[in-house]
Write a structure and sequence with these properties.
225 residues, 39% helix, alpha/beta, 6 helices, 21% strand
């Protein structure tokens, strides 16, 4: 195990004293985070062993708003530690997506994790959604925007290659696999992922997922850069 939810279970059992409602809530959230982290690290190691192959997806129709909100909720302690605030702008008309939810969570954890590394304390991380059209098909786009140093134009494609660390990411450590795995996951769904400058400074990482809903009305043209 990479995290140890067993210790949380031991405390939750009450064997070491009664817990307040707030203490129980935080322990339960910590246990969920440990389980999520174990799954994430397991997928990361498996991807590294298998040449970044994603493997079969368990695809279902899903609303992405609860999924995004759940990831943000579990990362809140880390965001608060870095003095970052998250603003969600999930459009009410955002369609459902055809996706493997745990894999999409993996992408979101990576992208929000990048913001944790590079965004300055006291800044805002935005997570937004919208419907877009690509090739006459309807997609959902999720974007994570931060106020960090941004990505050099020369690196905006290569940072999605395995083992590549560019600019500030070299100082942050790691293997340079996170964004490469994100791209494999998104492309396995039939979507695209990219990065572009955030208006006012910083980065806008965005990815798309196919929607089962038909194209209707006037959608945003294009998607992740």
């Amino acid at each position: 195990m990479h995290g140890d939810p067993g210790l949380n279970r031991l405390l939750l059992s009450g064997r070491f004293g009664e817990l307040s409602d707030k203490q129980r809530h935080f322990l339960e959230e910590s246990q969920k985070s440990c389980q999520r982290l174990n799954t994430f690290i397991g997928n990361l190691l498996e991807a590294a062993r298998s040449g970044l192959a994603v493997g079969p997806l368990e695809v279902a129709e899903a609303s992405l708003a609860p999924l995004v909100e759940g990831v943000v909720r579990h990362l809140t302690p880390l965001l608060e530690e870095h003095r970052l605030r998250v603003e969600l702008a999930l459009a009410a008309e955002t369609p459902r997506a055809r996706c493997d939810p745990p894999r999409v969570e993996q992408v979101l954890v990576n992208l929000i994790g990048n913001a944790l590394k590079f965004a300055p304390g006291g800044s805002v991380v935005e997570v937004v959604s919208r419907a877009v059209e690509q090739g006459g098909r309807r997609f959902v786009e999720i974007a994570v925007l931060d106020a960090g140093p941004g990505v050099d134009p020369r690196d905006r494609e290569r940072i999605f290659d395995p083992y590549v660390q560019a600019g500030e990411s070299r100082k942050a450590g790691g293997l340079g696999l996170g964004l490469a795995i994100c791209r494999r996951i998104v492309e396995a769904h039939g979507g695209r992922i990219g990065v572009e400058p955030r208006p006012g400074g910083g980065s806008r990482f965005a990815f798309t997922l196919p929607s089962p809903e038909p194209v209707a009305g006037h959608l945003a043209d294009g998607a992740a850069a």
